[in-house]
Amino acid sequence: MNWFGRPKKEAKTPSAVSSTSRPNGGGGTRTTTANTVVQLRENIATQEKREQHLEKKIEQCVNEAKDKMAKKDKKGALFKLKQKKLYEAEIDKIQNIKMTLETQVMNLESAAQNAETLKAMQIGKNAMTDIRQQTNIERVDDLMDDIKEEMELAEEISNALAQPVDPFMADEDELLAELNELEAEGVEDELLRPTKKADEEISFPQVPTTTMPSIKNATKEEEDELKQLEAELAGL
């Protein structure tokens, strides 16, 4: 309440969570989340600068307290130590604020990542649904039947092309029958051929009847062998 008796209206500051609770479409959500993360990190940077400034103040208070103690000014040194305690307490608050902001940034980035992941999973699910609708089980069965039919036709064509081209193949049975007839006629002619008569004389070569010619200058032993050969030929 102010001095004039009217309640003071508090300005509503949008928080990091509320800024992302009302997405303005898919792209708007990403933009708002990114902007919120940037604002939080800027606030963290500001808190760090303030913390560094307070640390310098603490160092300054310690130095001034030492100087006052050297001058025997205990009251002034005690005052500087009290200031130092205030600054340290403020640094503790700043560190807690930084931890809260870091936690918000981490949670916000994790939530944004989860949202992107969920969106990607939804897109993948929709794509799978479209594919399944285009390739249902009936279409798969029909396709497999068509493939089997085409393979069978291809096999039949291959077998037809592999058959030998012989113009006499259709008359092969007739040709075999004719060959058997010729073979039977040959056996019959062999059986009907007349055999040789038993009393038919067999001609042999004639044995020479003349005496063997004499050998000139033959020894007595050679003449005896020659006479023996003549006697054997005469007995045949």
Can you describe this structure?
With 236 residues, the chain is mainly alpha-helical. 74% of the residues lie in helices and 0% in strands. It has 6 helices and no strands. The protein is elongated and about 180 Å long.
Point out poorly predicted stretches.
1-8, 10-25
Q: Which class best fits the helix and strand makeup?
A: mainly alpha
Give helix % range.
over 70%
Number of helices: 6
As a whole number of angstroms, the C-alpha radius of gyration is 66 Å
Q: What key attributes describe this structure?
A:
236 residues; mainly alpha; 74% helix; 0% strand; elongated; disordered N terminus
Give a brief description.
The protein has 236 residues and is mainly α. The chain is built from six helices and no strands.
What is the strand and helix layout of this fold?
Elements: H1 16-21, H2 25-70, H3 74-134, H4 137-162, H5 172-192, H6 220-234
Helix pairs in contact: 2-3
